[in-house]
Amino acid sequence: MKEMTKNNLQNAFAGESQAHMKYLIFAEVAENEGYKNVARIFRAAAYAEQIHATNHLKVLGQVGKTENNIQAAIGGETFEVDEMYPSYIAVAELQKEENAKKSFKRAMEAEKIHADLYKKALDAVKQGKDVTVGKIFVCSVCGYTVEGEAPDKCPLCGAGKDKFKEF
Q: Per the count of CB atoms within 10 A, which of 27, 55, 96, 153 is most buried?
């Protein structure tokens, strides 16, 4: 693939991915404000953006078999923990942006857990098995992820057990 087209696909993937998430967030706000049909429009558009992002990623050749996808996920999570978030935190500290620093730190801690879950999944898939995993809970305030039972209080942000969503 020619470099300019590859870069354009990567940029389009990033833009479509961001639009997907933004529209889901907007849908939640609309729903909470009582605008059910506005929320439906946002969710429909978000789904379309997901399709666009998926198609771009496939054309880039970055969607493979599960083992390869898990390895890519581990690489992404590890990069975020080892390089991306530490540098973002350092800049936020220098600029005295406490809310950004807190958001980055919470995300980084959750990414560590995600990487561990992916590593567990990779070990199973390499043996030709599905991973054995218990209930998974995610804090809806900060993204802290836990296997097993939701804690009474989130260790990252202090949110109550009722703020955890089960997967």
A: 27
111 token code pair: 């990414």
Q: 């919470």: which residue's tokens?
A: 106
Average pLDDT over residues 53-68: 97
Separation of alpha carbons 115 and 118, rounded Å: 5
Tokens of 95: 């600029």
For residue 48, the model assigns a pLDDT of 97
The percent of residues in the chain predicted with pLDDT above 90, rounded, is 100
Taking the C-alpha atoms of residue 116 and residue 21, their distance in angstroms, rounded to an integer, is 24
